[in-house]
Every structure is written in C-alpha cells, then in structure tokens.
Amino acid sequence: MLHILFLFSLLFSAARGSVQDFCVADLTAPEGPAGYSCKKPAKVTVNDFVYSLSAAGNTSNIIKAAVTPAFAAQFPGLNGLGISMARLDLAPGGVVPMHTHPGATELLLVVQGTITTAFIDSASSVYLKTLKKGDIMVYPQGLLHFQVNAGGIPAIAFVSFSSSNPGLQILDFALFANSLPTPLVEKTTFLDEAQVKKLKAVLGGSG
Fold first, then answer.
1. Which of 22, 69, 154, 192 sits in a 20 to 30 Å window from 78, CA-based?
2. Where in the numbering of this chain does the Cupin type-1 domain appear (predicted)?
3. CATH 3.40.50.720: does it fit domain 46-54+68-166?
C-alpha cells in the first residue's frame, strides 16, 4: 500500500511540475493567435494581476460613450486565462452602436442608470430589454448587439468576456469608416449615394 501511495505522489509531482500556474503577457513581444508570449516568472509581480476600472471614460465623442478595456493588452495577468472585463460609460443620449465580439460571449452588469439593449440572432430574432441597476444580460458569442442610455443620468456598466481578447467589430464603422467604394456600399446596404457619402464623411471613410 505504501508503495502505491509513493508511486501516486511521484506521478502527481511530475504532472504538477509540467503545468504553468499562469502566463503573464510579455507586452514587449508581438501578439499571436494564441495570445502573448509569457513573461519570465522572475519578472512577474503582483501588479500584473491587479487592474483598476474605477475611472470614468471620456464620453465627449460622437456616440457619447466610452469603453475602458481590461484585456490582456492592458491587464497582462489575464493572458491565456479566457476571461476579461471592461467598463462602459454612457452619457445621457449615449449609444454603443451595433457591434459584435467575434471571439467571446459577453455578460453585462448595470451598476448605475438604465440601459436599453438587445442582441439579434442568426434568424433575425430580436432580444430587447431595458436594464436597471443590478440587472445582468448575456450576449452570445458573435451576435450583433447594442447598448443605449435609456435615462437622463449617466449610465455605467461592467462587462465580462469569455476571452482575454474578445475582439470588436462595429457595424457602422465596418460599412462607412473605410475606403470601400460608395457604389458597392449602396448596393450592399440599399442606401442611396447621398446617405452613404454623409455617413462616410461623419465616420471618416472615403471612396
């Protein structure tokens, strides 16, 4: 019996020694599809595992909204762990336009104000709700969704993701903030030339 216990302890020790506890991002190295390279353990400090989202974002912009990310690029201790967070600030009238996170499911928690939000599934069904303080909503990975401040005071939410780098594509920017020729945008959006050029001018596109 003692021999068996000794054998198991050796196997456990060998297996434990081959597993890394963490892979803090080495931000001096390029990011690859699997994330960042690991910082050498001797250079890791407790500050790699701590980050603050206490400061409000700057909402003085065209959408009156700010997203402050805590992804691997900002919070190196998250690298490889499959989680991340962000802070969302929405001034009155603020909106996060229709967008998607190709690499993660999102969970949103409202901590101040009210937020009207929805996601749209692949069958074009809409899941719409106005959330108040303490409410949580989940957005399945890759589905289009948006958030709008539904009240007269600034709204604040914290969002978590099932990836340390969830990715982001904003629909309006994808259509109108690039050099795709206006005639092609017209054909693919059913908008007329004047509307397309107006949106390109607002969002910094050309063509």
1. 154
2. 51-197
3. no
